[in-house]
Design brief:
Blueprint (H helix, E strand, L loop, with lengths): L2 E3 L5 H11 L1 H7 L1 E5 L1 H9 L4 E6 L1 H15 L4 E5 L16 E6 L16 E5 L4 H14 L4 E4 L8 H7 L8 E4 L2 H10 L3 E5 L6 E2 L9 E5 L8 H6 L2 E4 L11 H16 L5
Parallel strand pairs: 1-4, 3-4, 6-7, 6-11, 7-8, 9-11, 9-12, 10-12
Antiparallel strand pairs: 2-5, 3-5
Length: about 270
């Protein structure tokens, strides 16, 4: 049964609104907000624990089939009046469907990492669209998981969630605080660690052998990888480019690197 919320001052609405805007509050509450018919439905179908479903009457008219699926998984259900929807959204034209979800069973411990898979590691990625896009590509290409180090932007932010198109619900990820220590651990676990750099002297990614479990490390959008990070990696790799551009943005670079890694791992099937 859905209960009706008519006031923007409702305590549940104020909590949900704060979850949209504050990464610290999300971590404190271990909750986050997903928005949109497809993303919320994807969360429900991916066994995400949905604490609350919010929807407007207009959303029910247009996206009723999606909402019916989400209702089966939601612990609480609220219909909200249309003037409340913008409080839960960062988009200009919200669809009027939102879920408050529990953070659980997503983050994995590094010692538990599967040692027969290939991974992408990200150092200090700050653009939510870049992070979400990388997650989406990683899942699409069959990458084993994503390692986030050195203060990447919040993986549960609304912009990351939208850009990932639900990849966060299915892709293992590992959040680490220190990149150098993380790479040293990966080296000891038997992984080949590759620092992605815009350096013509580095090994071309197209010529790298991926017959061993591998982690490719991609750095910050503006500054790239820290020097200390590059030093502890097994080797440095670069994307050969024929044009005049000196580098690509983080999302584009990661996509090319992952494509080449997974293509070689699968014997050129991709």
């Amino acid at each position: 049964m859905a209960y009706l919320i008519t006031s923007r001052k409702n305590e549940i609405i104020k909590q949900a609104s704060k979850l949209c805007s504050s990464a610290d509050y999300r971590r404190e509450q271990e909750l986050y907000i997903t928005e949109g018919a497809r993303l919320c439905c994807d969360a429900a179908l991916s066994s995400v624990k949905i604490k609350i479903l919010f929807y407007t009457s207009k959303a029910m008219e247009k996206y009723g089939k999606y909402i019916d699926v989400i209702k089966e998984k939601a612990e609480q259900i609220y219909e909200i009046e249309s003037h409340i929807a913008p409080m839960l959204s960062e988009t200009k034209s919200p669809q009027g469907i939102f879920c408050m979800c529990k953070m659980e069973n997503y983050e994995h411990n590094l010692p538990d990492i599967q040692r027969n898979s290939h991974y992408i590691a990200l150092e200090n990625i700050q653009d939510p669209a870049n992070l979400g896009g990388i997650l989406r590509t990683a899942e699409a290409l069959g990458v084993g998981g994503v390692i986030l180090t050195n203060h990447c932007c919040d993986i549960y932010s609304p912009k990351v969630l939208r850009a990932s198109m639900g990849a966060i619900f299915r892709l293992p990820f590992y959040i680490q605080t220190d990149t150098v220590q993380t790479i040293e651990k990966l080296n000891k676990l038997g992984f080949t660690t590759l620092a992605a750099v815009p350096d013509s002297e580095a090994d071309k990614i197209t010529e790298v052998n991926f017959n061993r479990p591998t982690v490719i490390i991609v750095g910050n959008e503006g500054n790239g990888l820290n020097i200390e990070t590059i030093k502890v990696c097994s080797k440095s790799v670069t994307i050969p480019m024929l044009g005049r551009a000196e580098s690509l943005n983080a999302s584009a670079s990661a996509a090319i690197l992952m494509w080449e890694m997974m293509r070689k791992k699968s014997g050129g099937v991709l």
